[in-house]
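Before a colleague's protein record goes any further, I have to sign it off. What it holds is a sequence and that sequence's fold in token form. My question to you is simply how this chain folds and whether the tokens agree. Thanks in advance; the entry in question is below:
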Amino acid sequence: MFEKLKIYCKSIITLTDEELNLIDNYFEVKIVKKKDFLLQEGKVCDFIGFVEKGTIRHFHIKDGVEKTCDISFENAWVTDFQSFTYGTVCIMNLQAMEDATVFSISKKRKLELYKLCSKYETFGRIMAEQVAVRATEIAMSLSSEKPEERFQNLLQKQPDLFQRVPQKYIANFLGVSPESLSRIQKRIHSKQKS
């Protein structure tokens, strides 16, 4: 059931088969249908999820407008770390852009797993570092790159993005209007032809 997560864990830390099989007892499967929410603002986030299949959009609402912060695919971790860590109400929404399967662990179960096997505490730290690096990359991109550069980097890192996520959400993530994104795509396409 949790094979993809086990493979991912083994790629990060050394675990015995017995330690690896602890995942079966501590994680649960969440099936999220397209457009349904894994997490909605106003609730306390009490889980960390591993995307086994599907696409999850991270967004918040400011002045009545949705602001896409990230888009996660397979093998990515999703949560609202601020809410998860401090037990506060979250402002983040996690919504499936296509049918998704997420392996999740509650805060309580995570702490129990850490006590049982300290290697998972090391794994948790590494995973949190990866999430922090991703957040830093996004912040740096938004503050220092032109929309066309952000678009090209996104296309390079996630080439199947445009087949899996509606263009309006990609434009929102890049900080441009859908019309501007269309113009950027046309410019890049014409440059590639010449």
Q: What stands out?
A: The first helix runs from residue 3 to 12.
